[in-house]
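pasting input
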Amino acid sequence: MSFFGECKRIYSEEMKTRISPKITAQPTRGLVDEKIYIRVSNLIPNEKITLRCLLLSEDNDFWHAYGLYISDDKGVVNVAEDVCLGGSYTGTEPNGLIWSLKPVPGSRPALRLRKHNVFTPFLLNISVHKGHINGDFKDASSLALTVIERWYISPGVSRVEISENYIHGTLFLPPGPGPFPGILDLWGGGGGLVEYRAALLASHGYASLALEYMSTQNTSINVNNIGIEYFEAAIHFLKSHPRVSSEQVGIFGLSFGTSVALNIAAKGNRISPRCLVCISGSHAVKINGTIGDVFTNLKEEGGKIMVDENNHFIWKELILPRLADPSKKVKVGNIKCPLLLIAGNDDQNWPTVDSARDMENMMKAAGNEHLLTTLIYPKTGHLIEPPYSPHTRFSNFISAFNQEKVVVLWGGQPKEHSFAQEDSWEKILHFLYHHLYSSSIGLSKL
Amino acid sequence: MDEPFQLEVACLPPHCPVTLRSTLCSEGNDLWESFSHYVSDERGRVNVSKDDSLGGSYIGCEPMGLLWSLRLAVGGRQNIRLRKKNMQTPLVVDISLFDGHTIDNFNTQTALAMTTMERWYMAPGVRRIEVRENGVVGTLFIPPGPGPFPALLDVWGLAGFMEHRAALLASRGYACLALAYINHPELQLGSGMGISYFQESWKLLQSVPQVSADRLGLLGSCFGAAIFILMASELPDISPRCLVAINSPSGLLNPGEGNYLEKLQRLLPETKLDANGHFMIKDAILAFGIDLERSLQAGGIQCPVLLIVGEDDQCVPSLESAQKLEAQMRAVGKGHLVTKFSYPEAGHLIEPPYHPVMRSSAFNLPGQTVTMLWGGVGKSHAAAQEDSWRRILEFLDKHL
């Protein structure tokens, strides 16, 4: 058999006689925010096994996670119900093999897992290994393997590059004629064009514009010539798009993006969003003039920059002193739309919890606190991403403002941070649905 | 492809009549469509898994109705089976929502909303390998992972070679060789029907490194199943762990005798036509097989056998054939090996779940194309596809 002779493998005697263990993971193709159900069968009863998840990132780094399990009397391991005894996580964690992914030993340091091309999935190889393996899989051959795809975009969503009227970004449209509620999707000081969250929101039925507002390559989107008007133009673009319902446009921000959202909403002019989702940000960043001015201002007037024992930068003290100065804060008392505020109390990058408390006080004094819902998560850091993104406590960061290359401490502990991502996302989707879909007429959702 | 989906509509006014329409554009560029009528509840929602369709391509609570009731659109080609040739791309199904209860002219109306679904035969990680070795022609699908895996030989009837069921079985953990034995351009003339060809395929499958050589099974439909029954019964070197036969004519035909397509063609003048001019070949086969000498003796089978029977099969007298086979096995004390699932109102083409149900379609014979009546009543046939697949997977899981 010439064709097969070349790929002949040697199996151990034991392997030849036992029935092969079988591993299934559902869904085999799903969105990144869908839970996975992993089940292993045909094991020996009460057998020790290790489950391992392996992923090759777009940046060519290997990420992996593993969990130690013992099969039941029927030779079955059901990850959704069974207890993991050690490894990258412990306890009953249905999705632990995804959110606890870390770069494999020997990788480049301070990595963050992000998807650049939303039209290809993350491919996860989930394998079963004999015995309890402690992290070193070099010589461990697997008993069984399955592959699943995790997508940021669902079938039918279309991607449109936008570079007109000086705004630069990517619009993701759900399938169908629309009109759809719209979302302006804003990231933070890392800059560039980050598309995956907007693609995911479009997969949930929202026309979403991922906006680039700090670019190191494109000189027209330089921080020194962009101010609040740029974002207002982006919202206007969404509102006047033929497939967007102009009365149902909201803003979704993280980090600096949150500050932008708050600035726009507090302005109270005709560009008024229907609702806001604000993650890991602060109102103590008022935008007068250009974005460049804001950053310069922060550096000059700000508090101290600290480093931890690993020389990772802690920037939360930078904004903290500004909370005491009303002239430096957005007048959140003027906000007229519902606002969902999300923060982690181990955020080492921005003082998000202090800001949240201060915002609550300001809104109480102004009489609009009924619009505010605050979610504060313990042991959770700055990068509250869609579930089940691996938690990153610190990573390489290049500021789009001054191209400074540092390692930034974001904060958070894996288990609690991952819970925060899962829980907040569910609440975010519910919030968006309530304010952008069900309380409006004329929109139906499939 | 064999996974159910959930479809919900929200944000409608309460008690609002709506139409759901599914469309699919096949590889042959034919448009398939289906539609159903619903009324939203007091919260303005429709849940296809729980609510009743009040009309359209199906009626009642049918969670997967929008798939199995797909039919070729009026104005295009008719009478063709839905076949996917490329296993590495999905079938894309669009589902649209329309206001009111509409039955046609969908293209002139604006949909209220839409969603898109991908249906795959092949799970991620499954490997597809074209096999052209020692005269054997087929496609091998291997699950991801080191193996070794239990394995299956998969064949269809006289319609020819199809990969989709083998791809699905590999996605469920079985190394599966979809075997061509008739009507394939790469088959050497004459070699397709010989017993030695099947013996060669069996040996080939056993020799695949990722296959567990002592855990092989046979799965076939129609004529292919009859061939497998013959093999399992009479060839000592073919020892499957189990055998699945779907609508097999084995009780009445001996596939070892010559060229069956030609024989079928000779049967045609005697074959009755139904009201639409479609060939109901079942009675002709029944008459043909009454001669006991002609029928295949299945008593030599040593392994568990699963028989899937569509009682409304108008092509093959599947029920009579299955009964005969059971009787033969019982006569030699092996009745306990046979498990039979018989579905009233299911026809000949029992495909994997949610496949569009077709009561008749075009069938190619040498020199002519006829329309063959397969049988099967929509809803019941769809339910039979769903249930039989579950039974087949359970049976394979138990014995392999």
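fyi Residues 378-399 of chain B form the longest helix (22 residues).
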